[in-house]
Amino acid sequence: MQLFRSGEIRIAALSGALLVAALGPRMACATLGEPELTVQNDVAQLRASTKSSEDRVGYRIHEIQLPGGTLLREFVATGGNVFAVAWNGPTKPNLRQVLGKYFDTYASAPRPTLVDRRHMNIQQGDLIVQGGGHMRALSGRAYLASALPSGFNLGDLQ
Amino acid sequence: MAFMRSLRVGFGVALCLSAISCGGGGDDTAGTPTTPPTPTPAVNTATVIVDQGPTVNGSPIGSVNTLFTTVTVCVPGSTTNCQTIDHIQVDTGSYGLRLLAPVLTLTLPVETLSSGGSLAECTQFVDGYSWGSVATADLTIAGETAKSLPVQVIGDPNFTNIPTECSSTGGTQEDTVVTFGANGILGVGPFALDCGDCDTTTNGLYFACATSCTDTTVPDAMQVANPVTLFAADNNGIIIDLPAAAPAGAVTLSGSLIFGIDTQSDNQSGTQTVLTVDGNAELAMTFNGQTLANSFIDSGSNGIYFADSSISTCTTTGLTTFYCPANTLNLGLSITGANGTMANNLVFNVGNAETMLNDNPTFNVFPELAGTLPAGNAGSFDYGLAFFYGKRVAVAVDGDTTSVGTGPYIAF
Questions:
Q1: In A, which residues are within 8 Å of B170 by CB distance?
Q2: What does the CA dihedral B279, A142, B168, B93 come to, rounded to 10 degrees?
Q3: CATH class for domain B45-230?
Q4: Among A17, A129, B344, B388, which is least packed, fewest CB within 10 Å?
Q5: How many domains does one find in chain A?
Q6: A111-149: pLDDT as tens digits
Q7: Parallel, antiparallel, or unpaired for β B253-259 and B45-50?
């Protein structure tokens, strides 16, 4: 965390912005519901690195490698915003960063009846957050139901 | 890890040497050879029960398919400053002992890092997190003892400043008996530590706390550890032995948590099917013609969780992620270990969750309770505590050997 504190965070953000400017939106990743060009925030704030970007029909997937080993994938509609994120690894990502303005909705959602700490399936309006797994292997995903590209297969959201 | 293992090996050698020195008696001219005294083995069996859960403010919290045991913890080195705590969840899907501060009457010494900071942990669960200090305790369960065991004190009142990095992982703050669902948890899965690489990597689990808390690395020996791996003997795994439950369920179900595999007469392997698990304690399950590579058998899951869009889900608020078929379904499953060994033709039933809960509101055991997983989400089948009903299931620790294999494995 100290790495990006104080002045260095500005340098990191600036380098991220320059990188994006130089390489175009292909290198970008962003927060749920936000444009692709908000990239540097997630990658810098999460102390992460961009692993790969892949174009699919109607959307693009950015893979972000978090330092603790977790893989974060952000799904961006072509010419649009981030409509989904998914994670898989030993720890969860900083969901306040990744979910952005949707975090509070997620965090305040009522708990279901039978909980066991192994499952999560929250639906609050347009926001859906789901998860599964166990200690040392946690997976989950969040998406905006109305923002899914037409024909998008939820099975690909992992 | 390496540190603990070498300690244990050292201890074993010491036992051996002392046995030789006691048992070698004899002088060759004696008519009757001296029989070496047989060391009394530790009582290695604890009682476990599926019941209504701990009582809070005079009422049981109403647990479902949750396996509990009782432990005794003492301030390290003390035999009098001790507390016996019931309703500690037995969990093969996690690692380490965690106690809920609201029920803990002892003051356990918090671990101090070489940097001078006090050690705290943000334990992450799928649906939330538990924050608290990491302290040491002498744990006794049945006749087994783990001395100076690092344990998490969840909701420690001296550590109320939860770092943003922890709370930002989101979900429910599970720091009370009600939100956590138990007075504590005993993680006895097939690995020794609750983090694979926290000795070299900061990943938001361990924190060094002074005036504030900062993400930190931690030497293995200070991390919250599966207590079984620190027992003097019977430390290569556990066996959970539960009777079958009636299809409709039951109020309670009692059985045994046995420590050690092939270490005493009561924990012999026999002819079990041994399925090794991968580095995530997972194996493959084949269901509906699909092979789900990230599947797991887990005493800490309260249902049988899988994705099948052809089965109706419940409509009651709070239960909509559980299955509610019109009639009980009889479904097939096969399980394949990382070693390629298969357990074929397993059968499980899926009942109507609303009906079973409504028909028997006093029940806490529901072998046919099943819930959904998001379709395609990491290709998983999560077979919870119901898997253990009517079975004797062994969980062997990573790197440890039994008469039928080397951990990490699950055998039944």
A1: 92, 95-96, 99, 103, 106-107
A2: -30
A3: mainly beta
A4: B344
A5: 1
A6: 888 999 999 999 999 999 999 999 999 999 999 999 999
A7: antiparallel
